Fold:
Amino acid sequence: LESMLKLIERLVNIDSGSTNKAGVDRVGKILIEEYKQMGFEIEIKENDEYGNNILIKHKEAINPEILLIAHMDTVFPIGTAAERPFTIKNGLAYGPAAADMKASQVTLLYAMKYLHEKNEDILKNVIIILNGDEEVGSPTSRELIEEVSKNVKYALVMEPARKDGSVVSSRRGGGRYILHVHGKSAHSGVAPEEGRSAIEELAYKTIKLNHLTDHEQGISVSVGIVEG
Structure:
């Protein structure tokens, strides 16, 4: 437990937001060294914009049937780790991404350590993906995940459980759209009557879009970002 907590602290205190490639790769480098100590083979999928994706499997693995996935990126901007570093209060751990999902990374790693000590043959049936862009929709890791998924029977994503400890076995599908609204420019002081406000029109559309939400049917629509 002590060594697990020390590793969680080390990871939490690294800023690794999705757009912080250097930070995500720092997390990846620490985890790579841990897996190498157990004799895992490491394949790094280089990225220019986002953190590198990492494919990990046992040196004697042939056709592993179990896929484990854990992301290294977070939603927090640079400086968050310095503002509120890893702490433990009343038996609970705090810090940016302590739950989602740096503790999950350590949980996965130590599960593999346990199997390495007790029954290493099981590890030959496991393949692991550590991706660096999950929080922004997995633009670079999606293709890798889909390709590896074709050859396995089971997959477990190491996202944290619900507050009550229950495991999430499925998620709703989602879509993302960008709506462009064009108005007509006019001087707001001299000739406001000649203009047409795109912002006003977008406000009307925002209300209509939000009214499409139907929680009983499992439908939620959210206008998340507006620029104008």
